[in-house]
Amino acid sequence: MYNLYSEVLNKTDILSLNNVILGDNFPWYYSPATVVSKDNNFMFTHIFVKEQKVNSDFYWLLEPLLNFINLKKPYDKIERIKANLYTNQGKNIKQKSHYDYIENDKNCFIALFNLITCDGGTVIESDNITSNANQLIIFNNVKHYGITQKDSPVRVAINFNFMKTEEKK
After folding, report:
1. Neighbours of 146 (CB within 10 A)
2. How far is the CA of 160 from the CAs of 61, 62, 84, 114, 151, in angstroms?
3. Average pLDDT of the residues in 72-87
4. What is the DSSP letter of 153?
5. Rounded distance, CA 99 to CA 104, Å?
6. DSSP secondary structure letter of residue 168
7. HSE of 20 in the Cβ direction (CA atoms, 13 Å)?
8. What is the pTM of this model?
9. What stretches of the chain show up as alpha helix (H) in DSSP?
10. What 8-state DSSP symbol labels residue 109?
11. What is the per-residue pLDDT across 156-165, written as a single tens digit (0 to 9) for each?
């Protein structure tokens, strides 16, 4: 089960996010694998938060997204925030199905923000969700995978891993 939100950021915030992340001064780092080592795929990443610690001078860019997510699904901790940039390989490549965090951890949930529109996407369980600009998917920690694009130079997805607020009994 997932929730899909469109037009998440206002025009000013999405323009700022696009200009910085797709600009020539944003630091991307080469990763030789997308999900598991030696999966014969590659991507570029930027880690905003790692193990609950801010790891990027660009963290401020995400504040409007974090506010939106917290309104829709409150959380206690941010475990990790990572932007993934996939280059066009001339075909759609399905990545390996995986959990982002501890396998089947019920306290973890994921938010995935698509920066641009392309024919790549995300598959959650059996639902294929095509990437649309300014779109956010919030879902429980279930198996899922990404699909790279063939119709645009890049696909950029920002992946958030949260620990949710315990429900009161």
Report:
1. 26
2. 14, 10, 11, 12, 25
3. 95
4. S
5. 7
6. P
7. 14
8. 0.92
9. 11-21, 63-72
10. E
11. 999 999 998 6
